Amino acid sequence: MTDAIVSTTSGAVRGELTADGVARFRGIPYAAAPEGELRFAEAVPAPPWEDVRDARRPGPTAPQRHRDLPGFDLDPIVGPGWRPGPEYLTADVWTPDPGAAGLPVLVFVHGGAFIGGTGSASVYDGTSFARAGAVLVTVQYRLGIDGFLPLEGGVTNLALRDQIAALKWVRENIEAFGGDPENITLFGESSGAVSVACLLGSPLATGLFRRAIVQSGHPDMVRGVVEAKRLARVIADELHVEATAEAFRKVSTEQLLDAQDAVLRPGGAPDLRDALGYDRGYGLSPFLPMVGDDVLPQHPGKAIKAGAGAAVDLIVGSCREEMRLYLVPTGVLEAVSDDQAVASLAVSHPDPAGVLHRYGLGGERVAGEVLVDALTDLVFRDSVRDLAENHAGRTFRYEFEWRSPLLDGRMGACHGLELPFVFDSLDVLSGPRGLLGEDAPRRLAHDLNGAWYRFATTGSPGWLEYTGEDTTFHAGATY
Fold first, then answer.
1. What pTM value is reported for the model?
2. Cα–Cα distance between 445 and 424 in angstroms, integer?
3. Which fold has domain 2-221+290-338+367-475?
4. Which of these is catalytic: 349, 391, 415, 418?
5. Distance CA 447, CA 477 (A)
6. Which of 291, 397, 408, 476 has the fewest other C-beta atoms within 10 Å?
7. pLDDT of residue 104
8. Is 415 a catalytic residue?
9. The Carboxylesterase type B domain covers which part of the protein (predicted)?
């Protein structure tokens, strides 16, 4: 292997040429470190450097606590946790040739319930995209309290603003990596997909990307100002400070993470239901984008229905059994009773019993299976369908149906399972503790990675455009 040097707007960076012939750059700052007065403030461009910056190793990650699920290894998706360091607003780039021109660009926003994850996690390896002829960029952004808490004197929706700053950096710099700044596909999964859907409806992101892919996310997972400020007050009380940016800047990162953990514990968060009785996070995370500022002046779903993002080609989809990721490893699926299923949904939905009975609760079905199906629809599929139907531009919809063999097949087509197929990075999630088991279909990875590449290149993944349920592409159903 040898080095590759590219000049960016802040200075030159040194990447490495991998054994696959791909040039890889890690931890390139797209914005200044969010510390001191820049904490809880909008991102500003990274300061220049004089010498060639080493970009051959992953950089710091956003502050977070490492989380896992029993029974298998999630690190390839969520990453190793917090790698401390102030400069974590960074991008990783894979390119087949920095000297090329006009290559399609894909920019990926990682998931992690808005409280964890990193763009440098091993499953997001961009080698397959680069070998196909595209430039792949993964970005990191502020999480949890730093990224989503509205504080007096601070700036709202900082995580989304970080992503907008990253997109501007890509447009300004991607030609140096061989990419076409006028052909950018923004894609993300889980909370990253929610972010992409929000940006699709944001006036501040207009014109920054040409295409979008929303994997297991949608624009409905947002909060109103009242609920978001309620969360801010509870966290401020936990820290014994005022809910202001000035006060929070004086609190250490470790203390913020402790306070964040306090609201993540069962019963720790305030009532985050809106005026209609819904908690739009469905208990998966108290931290969500907030409607009511210049990033999201109106609900992004309503903005999209009114025509926002109509010029952007869109793929949107979900996994067939999303909630198995959350309910199977924890043992909830087998252990939950009918009454407990109703109680668990009651904290997020105004009619929990009615919903669950429509899915078969009280009959012969196991309560846990009913809960999986109901929550998969409520949290993911229903709003994915709505996004596909409401988007005014060219739209393609998929459902990922290949089922994991892990835990005797009980994981099914769970949340996140499509990721190693999209990136064609099966090896990092294979093996006895891997989500894919021992013999995942490589042809499916080749096909799905190729569909994403075709979409980024031509605007079509090779499926029928979505016009209703019968034009949903069923990925993995025949493998």
1. 0.97
2. 5
3. Rossmann fold (3.40.50)
4. 415
5. 13
6. 408
7. 98
8. yes
9. 3-462
